[in-house]
Design brief:
This protein is an alpha+beta fold and 1192 residues long. Helix content is 35%, strand content 17%. The chain has 36 helices and 31 strands. Strands 1, 2, 3, 4, 5, 6, 7 and 8 form an eight-stranded mixed beta sheet that branches. Strands 16-17-18-22-19-21-20 form a seven-stranded mixed beta sheet, with helices on both faces. α12 (476-493) crosses α17, α19 (715-726) crosses α25 and α30 crosses α32. Keywords: Hydrolase, Metalloprotease, Protease, Zinc. It comes from Selaginella moellendorffii (Spikemoss). Belongs to the peptidase M16 family.
């Protein structure tokens, strides 16, 4: 393998000895990259609060959905991270991170104060903590302020954009380039990244998979990295096409000793990158881990992503680049797996010749940033034949999907004219997406989703425009026609005046919102954007500079210019087939082999490339009228309506507690305020500056799916989805409501789970955004509208989702486990087709509305608002909601609610399930589950983790014991035992803290034993699913492995779970778990959504134990927790043979599942015969998923 490339990155705040920064200031994010004679190394310093372990996995196999862990640094030679997922985080979508926001359409140029570097903040102008003799510092390019009337607009558009004022670049004498960006969030943390410029692209044909394996071996084989495990630091690594990155997220100093951790972290990274240990034992372990990781990621969804990008013919988007070994890494996993196994799986029937006998490999041409890429540009005037659509057909696919790609050279965003172009492209994208969403108003929409994306790809060095269409197989032609028709309409007629004003205003508002948050943006977000921008040559600005830049060009944006932009972007679709039109770079369709028809079952699905081309041309041939204007309300509740409601209902605050006198309870330590309205609604709020001029709000309604009845199974789930699909409130149409939310920058999500219905809002304080969110919530509760066509769409989506279940190994495996564990309790499982068919609009409406009453509601709000503003909105828009009419009826329904029970089974065949799924590729997964208490310590059988029962001294009488008992302590008698006992209540959060620590310890042991020592899996994890309202819960171990090892992996996982008594928990394990959880809590406290979760249920009668002490004392409880406390939680888990349930799922071509044991083949069952579907997965479509989840 070529050994000429390398990168390292490090992100750290300046050491305290050189900086007296405050806690908020001391977390800086810095990055350096080095280019030496034999490659590049990048050091980046930043801070990051959470691991993104699950999100990182896809990038590690095919290096496509590449997401950085922890804060990132950025290197001038580092290219964009995104590859397959072009819809998120792109420069076009975010308008340069600093530019993607909104204000008014009639803005003027103005100067906005930028973030300043404080005198005690780590900054590049003071780099004395580096070796002064080896630093040649280079400041960023000078910043240029924007002033009103500075230049004429035409001259101004030619000016260069200003550079980020706090971003500093330099180069050490040894060639190491670095970038330094001070950052405050998260505080007292640093992130160190060592990035080597070498990856899978440098592998030769006989080395497939070796780059990934070297990353595993060097990282996990480092003894110095292991020394960091007890310090509170977290470390990880990943490999992509041409980068290998090792990174550490660490506190500035070690807890307890205050020892600076930067030297230890750098020493570990140095050993990993430059003095690696290649131990034979480690190589064998990681050989298995890499193969397991590959099989784990090789889901059908992942294979679809690969096909969409590369295909297996010249029709693929980047197929021209498959001539090098990159081809085998990027091809579908079914193609690459045999080669990877041949290279990593050890001796085979025909072993490759020894290296000494191999001819010298031909080295590939190397590019400083990315491998050579051949582009087939989609530009006017470039002749070429239309690509024949490539069709990927597979038996595990459920829906039709098609991607129509266009590749163009990247337009670097460096001048004001460039940022203006970006702004206009974003307006075009926003307009198209809203127009498409209006197509849902038909009772039977011909598509599931249609998306248009326009993104710069630093990885490939091009801009890609993608039209993505997803539909039911029977509707594929109609869906494709709708997609291209709207493209054609937008290209021919442009946007309307209202659309231009609306989306320009929204983008400016969003940018203004980001600018206000400049000092609270996490390091990872800032650095991701910096790396992405530099990779494609864009000027890097901070959020406020971006907002200024948008303000400076907004007035110059005209309808004619936006129309011209639409023509340029969309011509490759709108003029499809025209000899003068740009030729699409690729057309890739992924389709099932069969489709389901009612009354006929599954029938063969046939489609040809010619049919696809004909549908596109047919859709484009229909005459299209210009888009009509929509009347968008400025408010949903007028002042006159509000005045009338206040006169009628006389809203006011009442005592917070029953029988109490306090109208307002304020906890000074947490800043939490609790109120109660005269209509019975409870309100909790907290004022924070975590998100400047922004806030979040959650309406929680007790009940959920647990209150569904057997004759209306799925009514709550489908009902919530129906209301979400309708989107109609008061006298306003769905389109008007959606546009109102766009204009006011409101994001609203409605969902239901087993215990609650929830409605979440995210809003901005600008231009009355909070008041607008409260108006919408008021109409949802007071004047909701239920539509038959919305019910039809909801039922159709649930049907489709259910029928896709047998084609997913993970879903099907979890389905069997959940069915066995809960004995078919449909409230815990997806509604099945027969139940869905029975549901009518009155039934689902009643199921939802019986729960949606003020006495059953709690509202929580967190944000940057004033006390006066929030309490005015609460009184005006919540206090005027009609009070609950029939409290006894609700109480009766609550009393009839059946508990959720995990019944122990004496039959081994019930507790130990197996499943086989026919697939072209081999994969395996398994779940191990059993009963646990709920979050507050309650079990279904009446036990209570949060209660301590102690024997009363025998010399005391019962009367004396009662006299000595402190308040709250009872004296009880235990059946079958003599003497009395004291029953002491523990802290209400005791059980939750103990179980959280237990989960962290079990996860560490699973990794050490099952993954590391035994090499049976790449990924194994332990999680609790803890109810809040319902008594009980359950634990789940998720395991992925190969078909030949999955049984042993499950047995090893169970041994770890059951072995905590024979292998006692140590104090070091407990301390490590405490550090991890406390670091996570401290970091999350900077997030509004985290606080929203903390204050949820504070006043909920159905969650009686939760109170402010659960938030106030959390850190204290972690400190006090002992090993005995963890074992106390452990003994409440159901771990006997009758209580532990397992299900092993294997996919492959062997009829016995690859393991010799018989297993159920799902294809033997018809969809109608399956009683339930799997919880945990989400279907795509408009609105929020209402799927239940087996774990959280």
């Amino acid at each position: 393998m070529a050994a000429h490339c390398g990168i390292s990155r490090i992100a750290i705040p300046a050491p305290p000895a050189q900086c007296t920064a405050s806690r908020d200031q001391i977390s800086g994010k810095r990055s350096c990259s080095l280019v030496g004679p034999s490659g590049c190394v990048a050091l980046s310093i930043s801070n990051h609060d959470q691991q993104r372990r699950k999100n990182r996995l896809k990038s590690r196999i095919l290096a496509s959905k590449f997401r950085l862990e922890g804060g990132v640094l950025y290197d001038s030679s580092f290219h964009g991270r995104r590859f397959l997922d072009r819809s998120k985080g792109s420069h076009e979508q975010r308008l340069s991170s600093c530019c993607c926001s909104s204000s008014t359409a009639t803005t003027r140029m103005q100067a906005v104060a930028r973030a300043s570097v404080g005198p005690t903040e780590p900054q590049a102008t003071s780099l004395k903590w580096l070796n002064d003799e080896k630093v040649s510092e280079k400041d960023s390019e000078g910043d240029e302020s924007i002033t009103n009337g500075m230049l004429g607009i035409e001259d101004h558009l030619k000016n260069m954009l200003p550079s980020h004022p706090k971003l500093h670049r330099g180069q050490l004498d040894n060639g190491l380039r670095y970038v330094i960006l001070p950052n405050k969030v998260p505080p007292n943390r640093f992130e160190a990244h060592m990035e080597m410029h070498v990856g899978s692209v440098d592998e030769e044909e006989h080395e497939q998979g070796i780059a990934h394996m070297i990353e595993h071996v060097t990282f996990l084989g480092s003894k110095k990295r292991e020394k960091l495990l007890g310090t509170g630091a977290r470390s990880n690594a990943y490999t992509d096409f041409h980068h290998t990155v090792f990174h550490v997220h660490s506190p500035v100093t070690a807890q307890g000793t205050n020892e600076p951790l930067l030297p230890l972290v750098l020493d570990a990274l140095h050993e990993i990158a430059f003095k690696p240990k290649f131990l034979a034992s480690r190589i064998e372990k990681e050989r298995s881990a890499v193969l397991s990781e590959l099989q784990m990621m090789n889901t059908i969804e992942y294979r679809v992503d690969c096909q969409a990008q590369f295909g297996s013919t010249p029709a693929g988007l980047h197929h021209a680049n498959l001539a090098s070994p990159l081809a085998n890494i990027l091809a579908s996993a079914s193609q690459q797996l045999p080669k990877l196994q041949k290279g990593l799986a050890g001796p085979t029937a025909v072993d490759p010749p020894p290296v000494s006998f191999l001819s010298a490999p031909t080295r590939k041409e190397r590019h400083a940033i990315r491998p050579p890429v051949k582009h087939s540009w989609s530009l006017p005037g470039i002749s070429g034949e239309n690509k024949v659509p490539y069709i990927f057909q597979h038996e595990l696919l459920q829906n039709f999907s098609l991607n129509l790609f266009c590749k163009t050279p990247i337009q670097r965003v460096q001048t004001y004219s460039d940022i203006r172009d970006v702004l206009m492209r974003r307006i075009v994208l926003s307009t198209y997406q809203f127009r498409i969403s209006t197509r849902y108003k038909s009772a039977n929409p011909p598509f599931i989703s249609i998306e248009l994306d326009h993104s710069d790809s630093g990885r490939e060095g091009c801009t890609v425009t993608t039209l993505a269409v997803t539909a039911e197989p029977k509707d594929w032609s109609g869906a494709l026609k709708v997609a291209v028709q709207e493209i054609s309409r937008l290209k021919e007629h442009g946007v309307t005046k209202g659309e231009l004003a609306r989306y320009l205003n929204a983008l400016l508002k969003d940018s203004e919102h980001l600018a206000a948050m400049i000092d609270s943006v996490p390091s990872i977000d800032n650095l991701d954007f910096i790396m992405e921008s530099d990779a494609v040559g864009h000027t890097v600005m901070d959020q406020q500079q971006g907002y200024e830049a948008l303000l400076a060009v907004a007035d110059s944006v005209t309808l004619e210019d936006v129309h011209a932009t639409a023509k340029s972007m969309l011509q490759y679709v709108a003029d499809f087939g025209d000899s003068n039109a740009p030729v699409p770079a690729a057309i890739v369709a992924c389709v099932p082999k069969s489709l389901h028809e009612n009354g006929r079952g599954d029938i063969e699905f046939k489609i040809t490339p010619d049919e696809i081309v004909e549908s596109i041309k047919s859709g484009l041939s229909e005459p299209l009228a210009p888009e009509a204007e929509f009347d968008v309300p400025d408010e949903l509740v007028s002042a006159a309506e509000l005045s009338t409601l206040k006169m009628q209902r006389k809203p006011c605050f009442v005592p917070v507690t029953d029988g109490g006198t306090l109208l307002k309870i304020v906890n000074e330590q947490t800043g939490i305020v609790m109120r109660r309205l005269s209509n019975g609604m409870r309100v909790n709020y907290k004022i924070t500056q975590n998100e400047a001029k922004g806030g979040v709000m959650r309406l929680v309604v007790a009940g959920g799916r647990a209150r569904e009845t057997s004759d209306a199974s799925g009514a709550v789930a489908v009902g919530v989805r129906t209301f979400s699909e309708g989107g109609v409130v008061g006298g306003y149409s769905r389109e008007q409501v959606e546009l109102f939310c766009v204009t006011k920058l409101i994001n609203c999500v409605l969902e239901a789970d087993e215990e609650f219905m929830c409605m979440d809002f995210h809003f901005t304080m600008r231009d009355g955004g909070m008041k607008a969110a409260f108006q919408l919530l008021h109409l949802v509760m007071e004047r909701n509208v239920w539509l038959e066509d919305a019910l039809d769409r909801a039922k159709q989506l649930y049907m489709s989702h259910f029928r896709a279940m047998p084609k997913s190994l993970e879903r099907a495996t979890a389905y069997k486990l959940m069915c066995a564990m809960f004995d078919g309790d449909e409230r815990l499982l997806e509604p099945n087709p027969s139940a869905i068919e029975k549901l009518t609009l009155p039934v689902v409406r009643e199921a939802v509305m019986k729960q949606l009453v003020t006495g059953n509601m709690e509202l929580c709000i967190v944000g940057d608002f004033s006390e006066h503003d929030i309490e005015t909105c609460i009184l005006d828009y919540l206090g005027t909601v009609a009070p609950e009419k029939d409290v006894p009826a609700r109480k009766e329904i609550e009393a009839k609610e059946k508990p959720v029970v995990i019944n122990p089974s004496p039959k081994p065949e019930v507790c130990n399930q197996k499943l086989f799924l026919k697939d072209t590729d081999e994969r395996a997964c398994a779940y191990v589950a059993g009963p646990a208490p709920n979050r507050w310590g309650y079990t279904v059988d009446g036990l209570d983790l949060n209660v301590l029962v102690e024997p009363v001294p025998k010399n005391l009488t019962e009367q004396q014991a009662r006299a000595l008992a402190p308040p709250g302590v009872e004296v009880i008698q235990k059946p079958g035992e003599t003497g009395s006992f004291w029953k002491r209540p523990r802290h209400p959060l005791y059980g939750s803290v103990a179980m959280t620590l237990l989960a962290e310890i079990i996860n560490a042991r699973l990794f050490t034993n099952v993954r590391d020592a035994l090499g049976l899996t790449y990924d194994v994890s332990f999680e609790f699913r803890l109810f809040d309202r319902l008594k009980g819960g359950w634990f789940v171990i998720s395991v992925t492995s190969t078909p030949t090892k999955i049984q042993r992996a499950v047995e090893a996982s169970i041994n770890v779970l059951k072995g905590l008594h024979s292998n006692q928990i140590t104090q070091r394990e407990l301390d490590r778990a405490k550090r991890i959880l406390m670091m996570r809590h401290e970091s999350d406290c900077k997030d509004n959504k985290y606080w929203l979760g903390l204050i949820t249920h504070l006043q909920a009668p159905s969650v009686g134990r939760k109170n402010v002490s659960c938030i106030r004392d959390l850190a204290y409880l972690y400190e006090l927790a002992t090993i005995d406390d963890v074992y106390n939680a452990y003994k409440f888990l159901g771990l006997d043979e009758k209580s532990v349930y397992t299900c092993i799922g294997v996919a492959g071509t062997d009829t016995d599942g690859g393991g010799g044991d018989s297993a159920l083949t799902l294809e033997e069952d018809t969809v109608e015969e399956l009683p339930v579907a799997l919880p945990g997965s989400h279907f795509q479509g408009r609105g929020m998923s209402t799927m239940t989840r087996p774990t959280t």
